[in-house]
């Protein structure tokens, strides 16, 4: 056996081995692969069968009311807060046109654009759905449409506009049901009679009448190819493609529709190109009377509110409903009158009226009492600036800085805030609106006169997270970028806010710290009497009641003395805050006087309101700007609306004031002032029973500046005293005075542990008329509450004989002056015995006399307190 060669393997064996391996040595198994493929194919077929079976079952189980597709001739009725009929929305059945009257060009344009397989396919566009599903899954949210005309009709009639996967699936199921019950011709007619086409129009008949003045029920053949293409392009985004508001976007969309028609063979390419060259040829035409003629400014807000709160606005336009709202007819009427005919709006730029919006809310319930998002009734349809986001400017300050700082005890209204412009880091260098402002101010003063540097300093002090948490709880949303910079302290927000948000955010200030959820629609009842929607109230505490009271007191100063004096109404408690956004979105720049946006957010004891005025356009549009004082004008608009809304009502003030211990009449007494001409300073001294137990805040008002109109408020207005110091001592020296001016000093005792005011302040005025020993004169004044319900007495004033020096109203002599003989005011305290502090003056050289302050109660000797 040795020497024999090994037997060669047979060919078949070698072939088998070669088939089992590749060059890399890995075996191949064709039969196994085939088996796997067959298994996968069988599984796919089985899964498809199961899917079809489940889908069919779901279609059968899906509730479907075909009657809802039948046009109604009964209008929807809107009720006000008192349950009275306020307006009606015409039923679409009154504006429906049959399929035979729908122009062929319009049918073709819609099919080519919305669902080009409509005539040849079922109600489910599988290819479109798969394409949309891929994009949706990739993006993580529902981004694509992929809807057939049947599905779009289902969404209009049965569903909402909210993009969710469950809604999309229901839309598909309902689309199948519609396709089973109705012919394609009926489906297309129902769709074209129900679809929203902008400017408040429902259906092609209203849209053709609105944009072109063509009545399709009478002259269907009058609609041109270009006009049909424009209408067919609107369903996708009726506001964005509104030809009256955005003609260029509408033109682009129309031309795309024409291109679609050529692509699918409805018109030739040459016809498409020729038609593209035609102008839009649109103008606004009136529609038959209903809510759009009765209350056009409110009508659009109602529809937008519905869409933003999970109620399909098109449901309201289908007819036959009863919609119960919170609208107060008198408030809404006031808003509409002022926005349409008011005289306090900023002057037009290039002839275009400045846009505006107003929203008013009941602070105790959150019910919207009135709202409008436009000034021009013709422009109201499809345009609602009440929901238009814009930067809030300084109107954010009470919510983002002052509210949280007061609430957590960081400051009191009399706390000193730094107001010296400087770099806060990273090159951020905010400035105040007016130059030469005090470098240190009280929080009260800073808010009243909208000092920007002080606001930024305060946000830096409490920390951005603290301010943002408070504001977000109050309904204001910030982006991650917003929270990286201090510019948000004065309104530098990416997404901004809208008037509805701001009205709700200010609610808590007016409602003892509690915010009620804003709402307009309380409930909706269908033709069968079934309640198909109900609002469920929700309230939350934003701040303590004491914080709300303190902030109200501070914002009353905005209206009484500061930047919002246009909102003041005699006898009424009014509080609020102004805000402006300048052209370059900063407080410095190439156009510091150009203002794009202005706000006033304010409240009375009965209502909270937000006024928004301006253009929220890109900064590259310099034509859209305002000059002057538009935020002050917003406060005037607020006042105009409230005066009309409250006409005939008894004036009301806010129920409570900042907690003050008034039981100590000797907290500050015997206030005296001395002018030291050599040192160039003013020496204040006083007595107090609380010496060593309390601290004293010293404030000063420049009386001459207030009289000359150079204060921060409007010319000639009063001024809020600027805090110039705080001390535990009974003396204070003010060296920052100038000859020729008059100053009013106020000293207030406070509990330094909690910032609570103690007793009443004492006030004295000093006038510096020249130089030398006999340069000054002073006047002391007091104010207090009389007993037995006595309010304030009449002022008293008496002249002393001229002398060679200056005397104060206590009869004390300084700088070699003689004593002045003064008497206080006298009043009849309503039959009760009043006690209080009077006032008087002493005269110096030249026998000049200043007027005394006010006294209360019976006649007293003048004591400068």
TrEMBL record:
It comes from the Bacteria. Residues 9-18, 811-821, 846-865 have a biased composition (Low complexity). Its main location: membrane. One of its GO terms (biological process) is cell wall organization. Residues 357-621 form the Penicillin-binding protein transpeptidase domain. Residues 19-29 have a biased composition (Polar residues). Residues 1-29, 796-865 are annotated as: Disordered. It catalyses: [GlcNAc-(1->4)-Mur2Ac(oyl-L-Ala-gamma-D-Glu-L-Lys-D-Ala-D-Ala)](n)-di-trans,octa-cis-undecaprenyl diphosphate + beta-D-GlcNAc-(1->4)-Mur2Ac(oyl-L-Ala-gamma-D-Glu-L-Lys-D-Ala-D-Ala)-di-trans,octa-cis-undecaprenyl diphosphate = [GlcNAc-(1->4)-Mur2Ac(oyl-L-Ala-gamma-D-Glu-L-Lys-D-Ala-D-Ala)](n+1)-di-trans,octa-cis-undecaprenyl diphosphate + di-trans,octa-cis-undecaprenyl diphosphate + H(+); Preferential cleavage: (Ac)2-L-Lys-D-Ala-|-D-Ala. Also transpeptidation of peptidyl-alanyl moieties that are N-acyl substituents of D-alanine. It is found in: Cell membrane. It holds the Pfam family Transpeptidase. Residues 95-261 form the Glycosyl transferase family domain. GO terms for molecular function: penicillin binding; peptidoglycan glycosyltransferase activity; serine-type D-Ala-D-Ala carboxypeptidase activity. Keywords: Carboxypeptidase, Cell membrane, Cell shape, Cell wall biogenesis/degradation, Glycosyltransferase, Hydrolase, Membrane, Multifunctional enzyme, Peptidoglycan synthesis, Protease, Transferase, Transmembrane, Transmembrane helix. The chain crosses the membrane at residues 36-59. GO terms for cellular component: outer membrane-bounded periplasmic space; plasma membrane. Residues 822-845 have a biased composition (Gly residues). In the N-terminal section; belongs to the glycosyltransferase 51 family. In the C-terminal section; belongs to the transpeptidase family. This is Transglycosylase domain-containing protein.
């Amino acid at each position: 056996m040795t020497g024999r060669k090994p037997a060669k393997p047979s060919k078949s064996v070698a072939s088998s081995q070669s088939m089992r391996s590749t060059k890399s040595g890995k075996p191949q198994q064709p039969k196994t692969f085939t088996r796997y493929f067959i298994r996968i194919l069988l599984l796919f077929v089985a899964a498809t069968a199961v899917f079809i079976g489940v889908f069919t079952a779901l279609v059968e189980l899906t509730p479907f009311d075909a009657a809802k597709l039948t046009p109604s001739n009964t209008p929807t009725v809107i009720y006000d807060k008192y349950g009275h009929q306020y307006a009606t929305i015409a039923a679409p059945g009154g504006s429906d046109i049959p399929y035979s009257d729908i122009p062929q060009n319009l049918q073709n344009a819609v099919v080519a654009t919305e669902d080009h397989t409509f005539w040849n396919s079922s109600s489910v566009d599988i290819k479109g759905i798969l394409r949309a599903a891929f994009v949706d899954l990739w993006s993580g949210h529902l981004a694509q449409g992929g809807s057939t005309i049947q599905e779009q009709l289902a969404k209009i009639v049965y569903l909402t506009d909210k993009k969710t996967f469950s809604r999309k699936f229901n839309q598909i199921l309902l689309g199948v049901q519609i396709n089973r019950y109705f012919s394609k011709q009926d489906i297309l007619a129902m769709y074209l009679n129900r679809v929203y086409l902008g400017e408040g129009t429902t259906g092609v008949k209203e849209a053709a009448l609105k944009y072109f003045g063509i009545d399709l029920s009478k002259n269907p053949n009058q609609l041109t190819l270009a006009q049909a293409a424009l209408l067919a392009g609107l369903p996708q985004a009726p506001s964005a493609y509104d030809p009256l508001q955005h003609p260029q976007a509408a033109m682009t969309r129309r031309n795309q529709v024409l291109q679609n028609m050529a692509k699918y063979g409805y018109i030739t390419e040459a016809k498409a190109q020729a038609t593209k060259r035609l102008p839009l040829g649109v103008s606004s035409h009136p529609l038959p009377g209903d809510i759009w003629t009765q209350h056009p400014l409110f009508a659009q807000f109602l529809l937008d509110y519905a869409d933003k709160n999970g109620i399909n606005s098109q449901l309201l336009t289908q007819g036959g409903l009863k919609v119960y709202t919170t609208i107060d007819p008198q408030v809404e009427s006031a808003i509409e009158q002022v926005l349409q005919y008011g005289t306090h709006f900023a002057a037009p730029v290039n002839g275009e009226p400045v846009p505006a919006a107003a929203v008013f809310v009941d602070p105790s319930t959150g019910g919207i009492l009135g709202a409008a998002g436009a000034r021009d009734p013709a422009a109201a349809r499809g345009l609602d600036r009440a929901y238009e986001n814009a930067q809030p400017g300084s109107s954010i300050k009470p919510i983002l800085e002052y509210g949280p700082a007061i609430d957590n005890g960081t400051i009191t209204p009399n706390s000193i805030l730094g107001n010296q412009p400087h770099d806060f880091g990273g090159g951020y260098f905010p400035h105040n609106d007016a130059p030469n402002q005090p470098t240190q101010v009280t929080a009260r003063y800073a808010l009243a006169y909208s000092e920007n540097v002080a606001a930024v300093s305060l946000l830096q002090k409490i920390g951005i997270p603290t301010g943002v948490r408070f504001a977000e709880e109050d309904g204001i949303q910030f982006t991650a970028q917003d929270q990286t910079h201090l510019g948000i302290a004065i309104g530098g927000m990416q997404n901004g806010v809208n008037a509805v948000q701001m009205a709700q955010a200010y609610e808590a200030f007016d409602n003892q710290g509690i915010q009620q959820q804003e709402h307009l629609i309380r409930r909706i009842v269908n033709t069968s009497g079934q309640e198909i929607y109900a609002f469920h109230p929700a309230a939350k505490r934003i701040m303590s009641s004491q914080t709300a009271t303190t902030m109200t007191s501070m914002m009353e100063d905005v209206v009484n003395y500061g930047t919002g004096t246009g909102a003041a109404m005699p006898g009424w408690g009014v509080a609020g805050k102004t805000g402006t956004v300048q052209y370059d979105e900063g407080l410095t720049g190439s156009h510091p006087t150009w203002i794009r946006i202005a706000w006033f957010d304010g409240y009375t004891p009965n209502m909270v309101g937000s006024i928004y005025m301006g253009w929220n356009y890109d900064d590259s549009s310099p034509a859209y700007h305002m000059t002057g004082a538009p935020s002050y004008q917003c406060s005037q608009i607020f006042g105009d609306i409230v005066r009309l809304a409250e006409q005939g009502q008894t004036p009301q003030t806010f129920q409570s004031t900042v907690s003050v211990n008034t039981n100590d009449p000797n907290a500050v007494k015997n206030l005296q002032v001395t002018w030291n001409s050599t040192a160039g300073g003013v020496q204040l001294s006083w007595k107090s029973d609380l010496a060593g137990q309390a601290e004293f805040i010293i404030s000063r008002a420049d009386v001459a500046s207030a009289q000359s109109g150079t204060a921060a408020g409007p010319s000639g207005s009063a001024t809020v005293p600027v805090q110039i110091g705080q001390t535990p001592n009974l003396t204070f020296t003010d060296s920052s005075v100038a000859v020729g001016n008059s100053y009013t000093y106020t000293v207030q005792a406070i509990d330094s542990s909690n910032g609570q005011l103690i007793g009443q302040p004492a006030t004295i005025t000093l006038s510096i008329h020249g130089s030398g020993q006999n340069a000054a004169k002073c006047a002391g004044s007091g104010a207090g509450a009389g007993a037995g319900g006595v309010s304030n007495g009449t002022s008293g004033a008496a002249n002393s004989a001229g002398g060679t020096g200056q005397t104060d109203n206590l009869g004390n002599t300084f700088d070699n002056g003689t004593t002045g003989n003064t008497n206080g005011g006298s009043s009849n305290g309503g039959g009760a015995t009043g006690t209080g502090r009077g006032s008087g003056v002493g005269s110096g050289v030249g026998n000049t006399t200043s007027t005394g302050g006010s006294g209360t109660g019976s006649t007293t000797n003048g004591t400068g307190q």
